[in-house]
Amino acid sequence: MKARVYVMLKNGVLDPQGEAVRHALGSLGFDGVEGVRQGKVIELDLAEGTTEATVTEMCEKLLANTVIESYRVEMG
Amino acid sequence: MKAAVIVFPGSNCDRDLAVAFEQAGADVTMVWHKDTALPEGVDIVGVPGGFSFGDYLRCGAIAANSPICQSLIKHAERGGYALGVCNGFQILTETGLLPGALRRNAGLKYICRTVGLEVASADTAFTAGYSKGDVVNVPIAHHDGNYFVTDEKLAQLRDEDRIAFTYTDNPNGSVADIAGVVSKNRRVLGMMPHPERAADTGHGGTDGVAMFRALMDQFATA
Question: Which domain does B217 fall in, by range?
């Protein structure tokens, strides 16, 4: 089974990389890009029966730094 | 003073930090990240700069979960001292021993130059050799030194006089110009600038020497 974890900087934490991407899109002529936030996706191959609670624990302990990042888990 | 300096795969300031401790008169032992115990009777643990584990996942995140860091956390919880510089600061925030987190520099560039630091608190064993308000010149070399804490935590750091150093000219976007903070018991310091790179006339500056000497005095009188 698989799980996918999305890690993003929390709202309110400035994302300078996202801001740089927004500027670059603007200079390519894409108008109307009002915000870009850049995060990461972590795919996990897991033993059958691994629970979402376990993946959440992985996020809390290692995959995300909850001081500045939020995460979302998708199972399956 | 007995010091231990932790070496992670990708550390590159470990020997510089060891030399700075030695020049102040400390006995220094290098400790490998896979070691599970610190040497007996260690007063202070140095967590060096570099790119531990290639900065994979987040700067310091993998190192913070290495076997030796479990011993480091116990050492700090027992009231032991620790100094984390640059990647070492990132590691200390990842272990939770220090508050906040280090984000990518606001200008997105890696910055390597000497900066002015104001001593924001001289009331720590690390900064006792300076006076509050002193400006010292110390090099920085980092890509992720943009310190973040919540407003609430910042207020707490200020109330408890835990901001050790601030930048005189903020190079990286850090909240409140913060360059270094101490733990609640004032025995763990994390800072992005490199005092060990301002510890010999050959470095072009010696403003970092006072930190290592002050630590030495602390343990000589203890």
Answer: 2-221
Q: Which residue of the set B13, B59, B69, B86 is catalytic? A: B86
Chain B nearest-CA residue for A63: B57
Closest A-chain CA to B66 = A62
Provide the 3-class DSSP secondary structure of residue B186.
Answer: coil
Task: Write out the H or E segment, with its range, that includes residue A56.
Answer: helix A52-58
Residue type, A56: T
Mean pLDDT of B133-141: 98
Task: State the CATH number of the domain containing residue B123.
Answer: 3.40.50.880
Whole-angstrom distance, CA of residue A14 vs CA of residue A8? 11
Fill in the amino acid letter for B33: H
- Chain A environment of B57 (Cβ under 8 Å): 62-63
Interface of A with B in 10-69 (CB under 8 A): 13-14, 16-17, 20, 61-63, 65, 67-68
Site from B53, B55, B56, B57 to mutate, A interface, most A CB atoms within 10 angstroms:
B57
3-state secondary structure of B112: strand
pTM metric for this prediction: 0.95
Question: What's the pLDDT tens digit per position in B13-48?
Answer: 999 999 999 999 999 999 999 999 999 999 999 999
The answer for residues whose C-beta is within 8 angstroms of residue B36's C-beta and 6 or more apart is: B67, B68, B70, B71
Cβ-defined contact of A16 to B104 (cutoff 8 Å): yes
Give backbone dihedrals phi and psi of B3, rounded to 5 degrees, phi first: -115, 150
- Identify the closest residue of chain B to A7 by CA–CA distance: B57
Q: Which domain holds residue A23?
A: 2-75
CATH at residue A37: 3.30.1280.10
- Angle CA B173–B195–B21, to nearest 5: 150
Paired tokens of B3: 């010091």
